[in-house]
Specification:
There is one protein chain. By secondary structure, the chain is an alpha/beta fold. It has a single domain, classed as Acetylglutamate kinase-like (Carbamate kinase). Helix content is about 40%, strand content about 20%. Strands 5-8-2-1-11-13-14-12 form an eight-stranded mixed beta sheet, with helices on both faces. The radius of gyration is 17 Å and the shape is globular. The relative contact order is 0.16. The chain binds adenosine-5'-diphosphate (ADP) and N-acetyl-L-glutamyl 5-phosphate. N-acetyl-L-glutamyl 5-phosphate binds next to helix 3 and strand 4.
């Protein structure tokens, strides 16, 4: 099987022009098949504040009413996605940027919950991913760049957590490619002590995850990220790690950065 790198970025990196450019230069140097998935929650948050659109997050998901859907579509599938593609093109990486509606690449289902109305939030599974079209693009030497916007094939756009998109695409493509999934973020991996940058675990298994969680050592974004990482590993993704976004090139060369997910 050919090797495939699937890389997820989000948060502060996307909000920082200089760091984003440096990251994209590293990404463009990865040889062979690769896919980039980006979030942009922090940028959406800042704009929503300016526009006085109140935001609520529950279980790592943004409650997405009509106004917020308009905003996140403009921010994720518009400004951020197109800016990333343009930067990658400047590094001679032949990127193409998509929402899940394009080419029916990611078909989601509106989230149903007994008590919480999440609004236009889309849930996905392996069947949601247009494996054939993504594989064809990769085989043409193209580099797909996905935003966190999906659709329901009934004419509605939906907002889907970007870590979930990365994990699910990786699961699907791991049947055809030897897939390495890297969640890149601002810490050196999973930290045992959030105050200590050097307390990152080299590996983490499900039991250690549960222990850290019950000890209150994992909070905010790291929880859904780890849940998505374990789901991907359990469903066949050959290698899954959480790494510092500055260490992407080192990880590609040596493969021992950050925290690797173990079963
Ligand atoms: N034990 C931990 N180890 C690492 N990060 C943690 C831990 N506990 C909480 N976090 C927080 O989780 C954040 C990563 O999640 P998130 O902000 O959602 O990332 P992104 O937006 O890049 O997807 C880190 O920046 C950190 O503040
Ligand atoms: C439904 C839902 O929560 N969608 C996410 C999509 C963006 C995202 O995941 O961004 P980061 O990776 O930067 O956190 C949101 O709107 O925040």
């Amino acid at each position: 099987m050919n090797k495939l790198h699937i890389i997820k970025i989000g948060g502060a990196l996307i909000d920082d022009k200089k760091s984003l450019k440096a990251f994209l230069e590293q990404f463009s140097q990865i040889e062979g098949a690769k896919i980039l998935i980006h979030g942009g929650g922090k940028v959406a948050e800042t704009l929503a504040e300016k526009l006085k659109i109140t935001q609520t997050m529950i279980d790592g998901r943004r409650i997405t009413n009509k106004k917020t859907l308009k905003l996140v579509t403009m921010v994720y599938a518009g400004r951020i996605n197109k800016n990333i593609v343009a930067k990658l093109q400047s590094f001679n990486c032949n990127a193409m940027g998509f929402s899940g509606a394009d080419g029916n690449l990611i078909q989601a289902e509106k989230r149903q919950h007994p008590t919480i109305n999440f609004g236009f939030v889309g849930d996905i599974n392996e069947k949601s991913i247009n494996q054939e079209l993504i594989t064809n693009m990769i085989n043409l030497g193209l580099v797909p760049v996905f935003s966190a916007i999906t659709h329901d094939k009934k004419g509605n756009l939906l907002n889907t957590n970007a870590d979930t998109i990365a994990g699910t695409i990786a699961q699907t493509l791991s049947k055809n490619f030897e897939t390495e999934l890297l969640f890149c973020f601002d810490k050196n991996g999973v930290l045992e002590n959030i105050e200590d940058e050097n307390s990152n675990l080299k590996t983490i298994n499900k039991q250690e995850f549960s222990e850290l969680k019950s000890e209150g050592k994992l909070h905010k974004g790291i929880l859904p990220k780890l849940e998505n990482a374990f789901r991907a590993k359990e469903n066949g993704v050959q290698k899954v790690s959480l790494i510092n976004e500055k260490k992407l090139s080192d990880q590609i060369k040596q493969g021992n950065e950050g925290t690797e997910i173990c079963l």
